[in-house]
Amino acid sequence: MRYLIGIDVGTTGTKAILIDEKGNLISSALEEYPLNTPKPKWAEQDPEDWWKATVNCIRKVIEDSKVNPDNISGLALSGQMHGLVLIDKDYNVLRPAILWCDVRTTEQCQYITEKVGKELLIKSISNPALEGFTAPKLIWVRDNEPEIYEKAYKMLLPKDYVRFRLTGEIASEVSDAAGTILFDVKNRKWSSEVLSRLDIPADLMPPCYESIDICGRIMPKVAEMTGLKAGTPVAGGGADNACTAVGNGIVVTGRTSASIGTSGTMLTPTDAPEVDPGLRAHTFCHCVPNKWYIMGV
To answer: Catalytic residues, which ones?
Structure first.
């Protein structure tokens, strides 16, 4: 029997599940961590907390299941969207991660809308400039912490920072990148035109893959920490909403999911990128190649 591990880097904690090849849940683990609000409208986390929780959760699901790590075929990550992690050339985190629920960036959103223009936002980005997305956070750092911005080597999303710690590879994938306002959602690549208009270096962005692509393999030192086998492949994974849709079979046109909880979300897949001309709904890349989805939150 072969097995898979899924990791979700959430806002309140990291979760891990180990399933067999038929999709049966074998074991699971959760480790929580704090969300810091040092000032009104701010929401930050220490990426080291995500990493420690990931290591502990992987180790726990393997130990509890008593599965032989040689039989674990791969691992994939999902995670909270839009968060900003900046690392320097030595791969050190430069400041606490700014999260999706941080709303300090109203001025930066206005700047993006003016510099990019609504026409290009519709044509390329497929989304409005909102405080929750990643680009305004990056520009806020440039505006308010220039010494940090100057040291930045790569911008990573939360789950992609954890991928780097697992594999040593810097990478992102389309479903998470689509929520940055720096990504050409229709063509599934970083938008060179938007980056240029915002004066953001293109090489600050990580290489971007499809969600199903192998983006790295477990490093030997991580294998010792977690109990995984060195060389275990790690797939691109996806943004939390996209992965939730996959898990519920919302991957074909005509199906819609409705989630009513702390927030409410409606999501429906499309076979082509369809954009609300009023930018009231979001259009993102799905985890499934050549699929997109429209979402209202």
So the answer is: 240
Q: Any bridge partners for residue 29, and if so which?
A: 16
The token pair that represents 112 in the structure block: 């993006």
In angstroms and rounded to an integer, the radius of gyration of the C-alpha atoms of the chain is 18
Do the strands 72-79 and 3-9 form a parallel or antiparallel pair, or are they unpaired? parallel
Model-wide pTM > 0.90: yes
What whole-number distance in Å separates Cα of residue 291 and Cα of residue 272?
6
Which residue type sits at 110?
Q
d(CA 232, CA 196): 38
The structure tokens 């930018």 sit at 279
pLDDT digits (tens, 9 = 90+) for 75-112: 999 999 999 999 999 999 999 999 999 999 999 999 99
Q: CA–CA separation, 261 vs 259, rounded Å?
A: 6
Cα–Cα–Cα angle for 236, 9, 65, rounded to 5 degrees: 85
Strands 3-9 and 13-20, by their bridges, are antiparallel
In sequence order, the β-bridge partners of residue 85 are 156
Residue 11's SS3 state is: coil
Neighbours of 78 (CB within 10 A): 27
The DSSP letter of residue 178 is: T
Assign 296 to helix, strand or coil.
Answer: strand
Section 156-163 average pLDDT: 98
Q: How far apart are CA 50 and CA 64, in angstroms?
A: 21
90/88 Cα distance (integer angstroms): 5
Phi, psi of 182 (to 5 degrees): -120, 10
Position 245, amino acid: A
d(CA 70, CA 223): 11
b vs e for 8-47, b when ≥16 Cβ sit within 10 Å of the residue's Cβ?
A: bbbbebbbbbbbeeeeeebbbbbbebeeeeeeeeebbbeb
Residue with tokens 């911008």: 155
Q: What is the pLDDT of residue 101?
A: 94
